[in-house]
Design brief:
Blueprint: E1 12-19, E2 25-29, E3 35-36, H1 42-55, H2 88-98, H3 101-111, H4 113-117, H5 119-122, E4 129-130, E5 147-149, H6 151-162, H7 169-179, E6 208-216, E7 219-228, E8 231-240, H8 249-268
Helix pairs in contact: 1-2, 1-3, 1-7, 2-3, 2-7
Length: about 280
């Protein structure tokens, strides 16, 4: 078992760390509390895209269309590109790498929001899902959040992806390949000390990371799979502070990094200052 560090009580936390090979719980804090998870639900979009690529109902080199009603900016790169008609595969890669909002909406429109909403329930999850398109403004008449989830279910998603159990080994592998490009190592993954732009292969201390993050003004969420020479951990660390009355990102990020340090030590068997043969 892993003893979690103190977590700021002003935030709502949902945390679970699993042994990715056995499924045993290594540590947890309110793992069944449902949090708003910002971009984390995009994992279920990537799962649906991967499934359709594998069954042939989507073509990897087909070009996406972006309807005007779903144009958004903020997170990502596609909205800044001159040529936005990228392929389905590359749109999914942009979602995995930079949580691209415009690529997300294009792929959601291509697959159908209802179909993507159904992915999490089909996998057996009741309190975790992608719920809506990404919006420039979330008015009262729209769904309450783009995605939500619990650490119990999100850590299980990552464990099952690592085991090749999300619909098929091929589907799982496609999703993990897209997530390998994630450039956001500012949260739990900050403790892994990886090159944010180049960690597809084993990097510092033999670590291999596949993860997805989510950020909004009142939330930070990091879910992932970290493999090292001494083991593997599937993790989900979520924090919300919507009703706290103050911005808690600094203490929340400190707590997430502290959890990440425990994960790194567990899968490497090394202290932080022992780079070994890295």
């Amino acid at each position: 078992m892993i003893a979690l560090p103190p977590l700021d009580p002003r935030a709502t936390w949902s945390v679970r760390l699993l042994d990715a090979d056995t499924g045993a719980t290594l540590a947890e804090h309110d793992p069944d509390v449902r949090c708003e998870t910002a971009s984390i639900g995009k994992i279920f979009l990537l799962i649906e895209v991967a499934r359709r690529l594998e069954d042939g109902t989507l073509a990897a080199d087909a070009r996406i269309d972006i309807p005007d009603e779903h144009r958004v900016e903020d997170s990502g790169l596609l909205y800044r590109m001159h040529d936005q008609r990228v392929t389905v595969h590359d749109a999914a890669l942009l979602v995995g790498a930079v949580s691209d909002n415009l690529a997300t909406n294009a792929l959601l429109r291509l697959c159908g929001l209802d179909a993507v909403r159904a992915v999490a329930p089909e996998l057996g999850y009741r309190d975790t899902a992608l719920h809506d398109y990404i919006r420039n403004e979330r008015t009262p008449d729209l769904p309450w959040t783009p995605s939500f989830g619990t650490a119990a279910e999100l850590s299980d998603v990552m464990r099952r992806l690592g085991a090749g159990e999300v619909f098929s080994p091929a589907v799982s592998a496609r999703v993990l390949d897209w997530l390998a490009a994630d450039t956001d190592t500012s949260m739990t993954a900050d403790a892994f000390l990886l090159d944010p732009l180049a960690h597809v292969e084993a990097e510092y201390q033999g670590l291999v990371l596949r993860h997805k993050t989510g950020s909004v003004g009142f939330a930070r969420v990091d879910v992932g799979l970290l493999r090292g020479p001494e083991g593997a951990v599937a993790y989900a660390v979520a924090a919300n502070w919507k009703t706290a009355g103050t911005d808690l990102r600094a203490p929340v990020l400190d707590g997430m990094r502290a959890v990440g340090e425990l994960i790194r030590a567990h899968v490497t068997g090394r202290p932080r200052d022992d780079g070994g043969d890295a």
